[in-house]
Amino acid sequence: MADLGTMERSGMDLQAILEAVLRDAENYRGHGNLAGYIPALGRVDPTKLGIAVALKDGRSFAVGDADEPFSIQSISYVFALSLALGRTGSALWNHVGREPSGTPLNSIVQLENAHGKPRNPFVNSGAIVVSDRLIDGRSPDLAVEELLQFLRARSGDQSIAIDEEVAMEESNAGHLNRALAHFIAAFDNLEHGVDEALSVYFRMCSVTMSCRQLARAALYLAFDGTDPLSGESVATPALSRRINSLMLTCGHYDNTGDFAFRVGLPGKSGIGGGILAVVPGVGTICAWSPGLNANGTSLAGLHALEKLVERTGWTIFV
Amino acid sequence: MADLGTMERSGMDLQAILEAVLRDAENYRGHGNLAGYIPALGRVDPTKLGIAVALKDGRSFAVGDADEPFSIQSISYVFALSLALGRTGSALWNHVGREPSGTPLNSIVQLENAHGKPRNPFVNSGAIVVSDRLIDGRSPDLAVEELLQFLRARSGDQSIAIDEEVAMEESNAGHLNRALAHFIAAFDNLEHGVDEALSVYFRMCSVTMSCRQLARAALYLAFDGTDPLSGESVATPALSRRINSLMLTCGHYDNTGDFAFRVGLPGKSGIGGGILAVVPGVGTICAWSPGLNANGTSLAGLHALEKLVERTGWTIFV
Amino acid sequence: MADLGTMERSGMDLQAILEAVLRDAENYRGHGNLAGYIPALGRVDPTKLGIAVALKDGRSFAVGDADEPFSIQSISYVFALSLALGRTGSALWNHVGREPSGTPLNSIVQLENAHGKPRNPFVNSGAIVVSDRLIDGRSPDLAVEELLQFLRARSGDQSIAIDEEVAMEESNAGHLNRALAHFIAAFDNLEHGVDEALSVYFRMCSVTMSCRQLARAALYLAFDGTDPLSGESVATPALSRRINSLMLTCGHYDNTGDFAFRVGLPGKSGIGGGILAVVPGVGTICAWSPGLNANGTSLAGLHALEKLVERTGWTIFV
Amino acid sequence: MADLGTMERSGMDLQAILEAVLRDAENYRGHGNLAGYIPALGRVDPTKLGIAVALKDGRSFAVGDADEPFSIQSISYVFALSLALGRTGSALWNHVGREPSGTPLNSIVQLENAHGKPRNPFVNSGAIVVSDRLIDGRSPDLAVEELLQFLRARSGDQSIAIDEEVAMEESNAGHLNRALAHFIAAFDNLEHGVDEALSVYFRMCSVTMSCRQLARAALYLAFDGTDPLSGESVATPALSRRINSLMLTCGHYDNTGDFAFRVGLPGKSGIGGGILAVVPGVGTICAWSPGLNANGTSLAGLHALEKLVERTGWTIFV
Questions:
Q1: ipTM score here?
Q2: What is the spatial distance between Cα C70 and Cα C65, in angstroms, rounded to a whole number?
Q3: Do D102 and C110 touch (CB under 8 A)?
Q4: Which of B11, B140, C87, D256 has the greatest CB tally within 10 Å of its CB?
Q5: Each residue's pLDDT tens digit, B117-129
Q6: What's the CA gap between C277 and B39, in Å, rounded?
Q7: Interface mutation vs chain B, best among C112, C125, C172, C188, most B CBs within 10 Å
Q8: Closest-CA residue in chain D for C220?
């Protein structure tokens, strides 16, 4: 993969490319289904579509609704995993695996076969275990606060917050996640209580951010764990690479293989319609559009990413 | 990932690195279990260990038993897929999926849930479907001959051949694969007969090659589908990238996530103890040692690859 | 349950009851789907409907198409099990279980979880194991001949035979059953070869008999293993009771609980549309109508049995 | 099956038979494992063994520890089902199935495949649904009170009560059952809340009764729904027969087929070590011994029932 300097010197105009990609994805705008399990997600305007790219040098490019905040949902798993791994180290892997799951996002079947050890940190059950480990003996509120501070520092915006209405609706509608948490607890694989773990989990899913903020916040993953703007080491190089590899093999539920096949970048989808992608050594991308395909990934967002990669040649596979 | 020229100018000595890696992996040599389901694989000397690297400019580096032929087993799936995709194009994806499987290599459960469509081309059932499509209306013998010619051309060695004893033993011991093939046929997902598809399948698994030959043969996958030595376009860039992405998400059965996590390169394991890995833009690696871990991947081979990546910085995730 | 003498002395007229039941079931005649996986079964007149009852004293009562031969399909499992258990004794239970299966008739999933031991003798995989054990070191032809002689002796009709066209079609369409057999063989749970076991299996499914013949043939199961007409001991009392209990808990695929709930008698369905039921101490019933419900049991036949039990009070549960 | 009068006139002495059965089962006394998931069940003396028989005329026979109260656990499901079916009629079957499950007692896998509809009322998930329907718009306390009154009336003992220590321990250790309840609720298959349904469920499992009381209480199931002592109609004949059929096809988790095969009577096991069995037209049996086999059924209790049936000829299959 050519580095960005070379690309730009040869005339690549990222803003123009993003605008072309927006047009490419136009036909998919408004298609697909909104996540309907909680009212707040079902009320989002389905025609929204935004794309943002963040680069090493601090520049960011954006088109469409890239500055509009949306519910990041399970994109939060990436940041929670970064923090939890930093806290607990590789001991985390005693409680959650790192193999692709081959079953839909909420599958409790896998959990039964594996005696309560979720298959990876990017299925719901795995993210519940990560939430639990992130508490690390503190109160759930402190764990949530740590995550918020991290997101604010990474994106350079102190106003990032939880949408409390969404968090309450998540909790009210959360029978499946409660079932997962109790099931994990039945196998003694929660350090804290079911309510504590879920208290973190439901709130981290309810954080609201824009494409531009998310791309900015994840930049450390493209640069071996170091935030290229602040110079701060957020994760070790090994950790950063491994989070990327987990995104590639497990980041999109039952869409993961398709995403790797079509986009070829580490990424993470959320059912709020956001997709975060990492271009190692170059930067980060975030696309958002609320309409989902059958496997819970943004329809227009996925198409936009595919086209962006096509137009830029950004892929880790050559 | 720095390019090789830069690396070598800065003093990287690949031969010395490979020798260090051989010492790194010494403790794992002879550990693990041989694939015992056919006698020929069970008779291999378990202490064998070889590693080879092939580069763009035609140079190859090798240590240990890197020139000793072994049974490539499911590493053959990568080459068969390249040929079958070239023949049938994306219509192949109507017959086999591209999602990670989350179940052991032979699992028929997945196949039942998916009504006879294997989850990806790198589980046994998927490779049987690829074998069937590779026939493409010809005789099974012609399909096998095409694969052999391809391997000979790519590795530059006309003597590459099938070990007929292994092929016969595969066929004799092949109840599980016969079950898979009949099951697929029951759902009308074979174009030719069960015996035809298996005739290709059992023979492609029984090809014998050395580490150096395998690394050399796969070089097109590191250079966007073009063999850098002959300049021949073997696959389109898109196809080549996608085969890499499939290796990354599905290449090692229930070990795939672990391999991506620890090695971070597209790869494919065979239960003969070989592991092939692709370093996009740089070259290819093949390690071989017959002792397997619980998931059917070479124990010493995996360790060697992990150390080689550590010592070279070769990873697609930064 | 009152005995028949008492019932008849109190005015029960079985012929009149059967005629009423035929009217009861009239609305279901021709409904449901024919088993379409082989042409011969798909060509049967869907409006056929017959019911026969056989009693201890040799009398039989019949209405509708009760004397028309049809393909007995998996009703044959009951007789094959009687013979195989007689031959091998309780050693058979090392190779096949006796628990209800909870999955559709052909499920290979259960077989994978149980490492090749079918869950009971009345799912297809279990009947293949019973077929294999029935061979007992002889030729498959001798095993089939023994079964035919048994059916002829029990029903008092020397002309009972295999429909060779059906047998050939079963074999041609038998990918699923071949998959099951190879899968069982992969776990070393066949005594003879896959082809030998299937040769018995496909032919026993293709025997042709009428309702009246089937009811007559099964009479030993209602009288503790002794054929009440010939006085011959066909099975030990313990064996006979246990075959009845297996019919009750496993006799109708995923319809078993429903059958026990609505009919309350040991029974066995075949996808040719026949249903055999045993009234312990009283006699046997066979109903036949080719249209099947979603779980592969005769729609009109099941309704007829339910009504017959209602009108006679024949049930084992009071 | 000969009626009891005939049997006794021909010299059958039930008390002597029970004493012989107690000796038969002596070798199994104290074997097997106690249910250890809650402390109270783990503290029971493992050498306890009791058997009681209740007859139509009010006589009861008992040996060993037949008058010692124990935790009835899921034997309670039978009585709860009788009451819930009486309240809601066949609408109950919209919420719980009636097919054998083929998976262990707590399996959540089945529940996922069936979209939250438990397979039958005698697996834990099904009993939770029955508990929920038993509430029927009232308070959970009233539902529990109704069940207690029913058990007191049926067994003629006003002192029957819940062991509150067991109920609290059940609730504390109930992660698996909470997971099941939330999972059912996620599919909108609970009428009341998770906590309400479980409040009934945990308490009904914690009722304490003796063998003699349980046999007495279930007598209506042997006489077509009418309590033969009080003459009271407790269930319709159809309902009573159907509960018997459900006990036969689903009463012992993954032991059900084995129980039908060896005992041949409708029955229900509890992991407190109790087993209830119904002899239609004759009476009821209850055996108790706390040591369990691998599938959660009393080891000595099962053996005792098998021997009792052998010595009396009580079976529904002839």
A1: 0.92
A2: 10
A3: yes
A4: D256
A5: 999 999 999 999 9
A6: 50
A7: C112
A8: D318
